[in-house]
Amino acid sequence: MSRRQFTLDEKIGIIGRLENGEKNSVISKEFGTCSSTISTIWKNKDKLKNMFQTTSLNAKRLRTAQHKDLEEAALVWFKQQRSLNVPISGPILQTKIDQLAEKMKIENFKCSASWIQRFRQRHNIGFGKISGESSAVNTDICSNWLANVWPSLRAGYCDDEIYNADEAGLFFKLTPDKTLRFKGEKCSGGKLSKDRITVLVAANMTGNDKRKLLVIGKSKSPRCFKGVSSLPVFYENNTKAWMTSAIFEKTLNYWDDELRRKKKKILLLVDNCPAHPSLQHLKFIKLVFLPANTTAVLQPMDQGVIRNIKAHYRNQLVLKMIEDIENQIESKVTVLDAIIMLDKAWRNVTSTGIANCFRHAGFCDVTTDTTQLQADSGLINNIDEDYLQIDDDLITSEIQTDEDIVDNVIANQQVELDNDTDIEELDDEFETVPSISEARAALRTLERFYYTKYEGIDAERKALSFLETSINSNTKQSSIKDYFKKLNKN
């Protein structure tokens, strides 16, 4: 065989394919080189990954684009096509950039070969052969993958270090009386999108590490966030409340940096959708894509975890609706309400249930007590099936059109005043942020409730004491002094 020189980009691509279980012989045959060359690349994978990241960072530091919005849109489009294994040549990219410039109303712009060259240098893009992926799925692909590919992928990782992440769409305002209005309606944008959010759920195989949820809404800064200093979830946004490749990359970069500080490496299983690009620069996350068209069977989060989160969430939503009726107030749900209830729902999903979902998907032979799972199932059985399943097929990501890409880029560059906020949220303003005195009054109500209704409430008493300390720590000392001054005068 003839000797071949590989670019750094090609070597990183080869490493990624080997990490995802492809055989050396298949790759060497495709590139027309000997297997020892591929083996050498694999042997030097850590060094090559370091070189790739350093080169990429330096390139972004040293070179800036004249039309930043256009460049960002072009990069989003290019990454999307690469995630779909679509081969992109220089002329194809050049034509597409001209089209994007026209849609963004950039005058007197004509994409040249030199512009493409600088674009490639800034983002470390090399145009090599892209291996396609067959859309046909063998009926035995799941069992074959688990038996022949998975063992080598997970080698060196214990159960605590193996994670799965998956998105779910949620009609967060949906109450049982509105279920029929949504039945049969497809929500991929438009009027129903105002009532939906996307949630990214991630946990490890043993269930002892449940990652903080990522919630994706439409608005960058919903009015209900006004005065809120922190959220129990990560929050991102785009015009359709979908997962995008940019949000996915940002999320994993943050997680990778967190793992770097902990000096811990993990394996992360995700499905192969357009919003999940192959990220070769991650140092502490080994990203593994499930085989195409198998996620309904192999995705652990789809085996019951997401269903349980929705059941707990909708249980809280119904309770809130009942409380609002009893208090004779209009029942409404903001994005902040949804986030708080989702966080509670996620905390109610048990580690036992998560571990069993990994086992059910075939990733381990864990034999665990199913008592807690039955308890969760009981909660599900108490909720109307139509109400529970209404958003099971809700779109969480889709191939972005040129218009979607342009709209998102422009929206991200603007300091928006939240024009997408629902009318229901416009009246909230500071009402969603209780005062210190309101918090204290609520605490006293809780104390009276527990002390008059229950016996042996040591755990609750400790929790109430912790809350009181927390509330008092937020009280300004000057206010206390003013109180005693007024008391002495009287």
Automatic annotation (TrEMBL):
Which top-rank group of organisms is this from?
Answer: Eukaryota
Q: Which residues bind DNA?
A: 24-44
Xref: SMART domains: CENPB
Keyword list, A-Z? DNA-binding, Nucleus
Q: Does the keyword DNA-binding apply?
A: yes
Q: Which SUPFAM superfamilies match?
A: Homeodomain-like (SSF46689)
Spell out the subcellular localization from the entry.
Nucleus
Main location per UniProt? nucleus
Q: Name one Pfam family in it.
A: CENP-B_N
InterPro entries in the cross-refs: CenT-Element_Derived, DDE_SF_endonuclease_dom, Homeodomain-like_sf, HTH_CenpB_DNA-bd_dom, HTH_Psq, RNaseH_sf
Gene Ontology molecular-function annotations? DNA binding
Q: Which residues form the HTH CENPB-type domain?
A: 58-129
Residue intervals of the HTH psq-type domain: 1-48
What cellular component GO annotations does this protein have?
A: nucleus
UniProt name for this protein: Tigger transposable element-derived protein 4
Q: Which organism is it from?
A: Macrosiphum euphorbiae
Q: What is the lineage of its organism?
A: Eukaryota, Metazoa, Ecdysozoa, Arthropoda, Hexapoda
